[in-house]
Amino acid sequence: MKTQVHNEGELQEIKVKIEKKVAQDLEIMSKNSGIKVEDIVVIALKRFRASHNDYMKTVQIYE
Q1: What is residue 8's predicted lDDT score, i.e. its pLDDT?
Q2: Residue 5 CA: distances (Å) to CA of 1, 10, 12, 40, 45
Q3: In whole angstroms, what separates CA 49 from the centre of its chain?
Q4: How confident is the model over 15-51, as pLDDT tens digits?
Q5: Domain ranges of the chain
Q6: 17: Cβ–Cβ under 8 A, 6 or more apart, which residues?
Q7: What span, in angstroms and rounded, lies between the C-alpha atoms of 49 and 52?
């Protein structure tokens, strides 16, 4: 997994607020694994998206 490219193509920055402990744990995971925090977040989000693909259904908004 360390050799895979996880965050490629056109990138877009987002700003989110997360629990301090989660942010600290991401830093620890990054230091211990050698994987950038950004890549860990992308991996986690892609896994979440894959297991919750029902959230990706098209939503129609009626005015």
Answers
A1: 86
A2: 8, 13, 16, 11, 15
A3: 9
A4: 999 999 999 999 999 999 999 999 999 999 999 988 8
A5: 20-56
A6: none
A7: 5
- The answer to whether the CB of 35 falls within 8 A of the CB of 29 is yes
CA distances from 30 to 24, 37, 52, 55, 59 (A): 10, 6, 25, 28, 36
* d(C-alpha 5, C-alpha 57), whole Å: 27
Q: Is the full-model pTM beyond 0.70?
A: yes
CA dihedral sign of residues 11, 23, 39, 55 = negative
CA distance 27 to 33: 10
